[in-house]
Specification:
The protein is of the alpha/beta class and 206 residues long. It is built from 7 helices and 6 strands. Helix 2 packs across helix 4, helix 4 packs parallel to helix 5 and helix 6 packs antiparallel against helix 7.
């Protein structure tokens, strides 16, 4: 039985991915900063864990409590709400630490495990927001492009290790939503195919 570790399961997209893999008889390690059992159904194949990606000890605890991981999903969606606009600098720092830097750290933390089992897969799902030209918006875009570059570099580095690294963006979110709607009808293969279609359409910044 395969195992997927999913970040950001407190959000709709992360919850949908967790639900999908449960339906496909995967073991699911669903992580949130503050776990809420009401967000996901009870299952013997579901492990809900607290994860603070800014704390290496928290990451180590999650990995020690998890079965061998086959797939890591770094879910980095976020919404630009009014509270974000009114408190941009604080949120920029939070987004950087919890979303982008967290993806670097989680990916690198799992590499020894993937290399040991000689296989693994990482999917980085990043936002693609329409922003202005102020310094805070530019700062966010720089971080998004950093994930582009990191994902591309990691995929090249690991291409001979049977470890696959993918990138999907929010600009193709309509296709992601279509995949979500077809979870039960089409199954895992079509979902992964649709995610990989997003990856293939993503422009890598090198």
């Amino acid at each position: 039985m395969k195992t997927v570790l999913i970040r950001g399961c407190n959000r709709t997209f992360g919850r949908d991915i967790a639900q999908f893999f449960l339906n496909q008889n995967w073991r699911v390690v669903a992580t949130m900063r503050v776990p809420d059992e009401s967000l996901l159904p009870r299952s013997t194949r579901l492990t809900l864990l607290s994860l603070d990606v800014t704390d290496q000890k928290s990451i180590n605890r999650v990995l020690s409590k998890s079965p061998p991981i086959d797939l890591l999903v770094n879910n980095m969606f976020f919404n630009l709400t009014d509270s974000f606009i009114h408190d941009r600098i604080r949120n920029l720092n939070d987004i950087y630490e919890s979303k982008f830097a967290g993806s670097y750290i989680m990916s690198l933390s799992l590499l020894p495990h993937f290399r040991n089992q000689k296989k693994g897969e990482i999917v980085n799902i990043i936002p693609s927001c329409k922003m202005g030209n102020n310094l805070t918006d530019i700062g966010i875009m720089i971080r998004i492009k950093g994930i582009y570059n990191f994902t591309h570099a990691l995929s090249v580095l690991l291409k001979n290790d049977n470890i696959k690294v993918h990138l999907a963006t929010e600009e193709n979110f309509c296709l992601v939503k279509k995949s979500r709607a077809n979870f039960h009808r089409n199954g895992e293969a079509d979902f992964i195919h649709n995610v990989r279609n997003l990856i293939n359409k993503t422009e890598m910044v090198v």
